[in-house]
Amino acid sequence: MEAVKPSLTALYKASPQEELWDNFRQGSRDAFAVIYQEHVDDLYHYGVHFCGDGEQVRDCLQELFHDLWQSREHLTDQLQNIRYYLLSSLRRRLLRALEKDRRLRAQTSEIPFDFELIPPREHFIIQDEKQQEQLQQLHVALSALPRRQREAIYLRFFHDLSYQEVADLMSMKVDSVYNIISKAIGVLKRMLPPAVLLLLLSPGK
Amino acid sequence: MQQYHIYTARDFAMDENFQQWVLKPDVKNNYEWATWLKQHPEKEAVIAEAITLVKSIHFRDYQLTGEQKDQLWDAIWDNIATDETAELPVLPVANRSRFYRLFSWKYAAAILLGILLGTLWLTHTDKQFHALTLSTATLPGQTKKLLLPDSSEVLLNAGSRLVYAQKEANVREVWLDGEAWFHVRHTKENTRFIVHTFDRLSVEVLGTQFNINNFNNRIAVVLQQGSIKLNIKEQQGQNETQLYLQPGEMLRYNKQDGEYTKSRTDVTKVIAWTHGQLMMDEYTVADAIQFMRQVFDRQVSVKEPKMLRYRVSGSMPIVYNADTMLIQFEKAFGVHFYKQGK
What we know:
Chain A has about 200 residues and is mainly α. Chain A folds into 2 domains: about 15-105, Rna Polymerase Sigma Factor, Chain: A, CATH 1.10.1740; about 120-195, Orthogonal Bundle (Arc Repressor Mutant, subunit A). Helix content of chain A is about 60%, strand content about 0%. The longest helix of chain A has 24 residues, at about 80-105. The radius of gyration of chain A is 21 Å and the shape is elongated. Chain A starts with 16 loop residues before the first helix and ends in an 8-residue tail after the last helix. In chain B, strands 1, 2, 3, 4, 5, 6, 7, 8, 9, 10, 11, 12 and 13 form a 13-stranded mixed β-sheet that branches. In chain B, strands 14-16 form a two-stranded antiparallel ribbon. A two-stranded antiparallel ribbon of chain B has the order 15-17. Chain B has 4 domains: about 5-55, no CATH class; about 65-125; about 130-270, Sandwich (Jelly Rolls), CATH 2.60.120.1440; about 275-340, Phage tail protein beta-alpha-beta fold (3-Layer(bab) Sandwich), CATH 3.55.50. Chain B has about 350 residues and is an alpha+beta fold. At the A-B interface, helix 2, helix 3, helix 6 and helix 8 of A face helix 1, helix 2, helix 4, helix 5 and helix 6 of B.
């Protein structure tokens, strides 16, 4: 007998999280498909930023969703945020996989965190070299932040986790998360003076 | 709301509620911030700066292709299917005991019945076809991302309406009023995908990415990838003109006189809205007024007609908040817009 695989065809709609989670726990394959559909892109994005290896991330995601389905009956009914739950689960799996990988290859290399911030080029029109240079400096300054800090910024701004959730996920204090982000905003504020900030647009003739 | 009146741009950029509004605007926070701004008009510049601060945090993009996503989903279900098979009771191995002989016919019959039912079920679901109609719409200032039942993706711009219908197995059809970007999934059976416009023009594709803007009296179709066929019915008679678009080409169609022109265009500019960007190339005040009407259903005007021709080039983030967007336009053009009506 074949397992009944739901097709990814349910019209995509953001159903209330709790209802979705309840349906999923009760074995709704459609709810499972919606959860996959809603989160797989973001999880992949995080994974590749985390370890830089798309194939590794896909393997971990396959395992994650498989385990999620198999253990659905034992999962909590008090889930605050599905995204947070999935992200932290992926993070643990990636860490474990990288750990194993390192032992196999007997290498001592650092875990290759990425979380590369890119200059917000598309927001601005670069009119002269000076501004081009400013953006370049901004990129350098942001890239110079330690990777753990970049990860925290990434989780808050890309994945919309609250300061508290970022802190929990990365096992740090909320104050530290707050400080990290304050520092990053400070860099932005310094590097992008209001003249550059307010759209480099000049009224036409 | 807290001590916001003494906040600097940096304080705002650090505030979770504020970030939430910039990153994930919705009806509730749009309303709250619009109300707050109305009470504190002197904070406009500070807010605008804080918005840009938050919006300037960008990370390199990595994406799964549609194919990878489907493969991954298949792999997950293959594993689950394997688990579920393993859970089925194992039949006793042949052991010619009296018990076995007595009951073996029962097993044989049960297995046969199982196979029969299984086959029936499989052939049934294989051939099964559901006629289906779905519809959805966006309010002014709201966009929606949709996944159609055939796995095609649609990004519906503000103030638009989309109806999806599958009446026959070999054709997928949608009706569009407003603007949408389509990523149509190619099916194994080469099912056609047709976009109707409530007018004489329709667009037919197999699998590709394109943008259609169908507001007021004109329709603009822009092809990003692949190829599409356009069918235009003549005003009198039943004849149809068919033409094809190449990637990077745009067709403009005038609903009133049925005239159309084909031209080359910068696709990234046309589809920038799907990434929340407005890319302006010699963009006029008149274009901005049209934008406010299409996206927010807001009527705005300027003091003197000659101002309509003021133009700028560049880009700005699209903020799905009419007032903030208007402020951005005012800054860009250096003109004041007057609100009319509601």
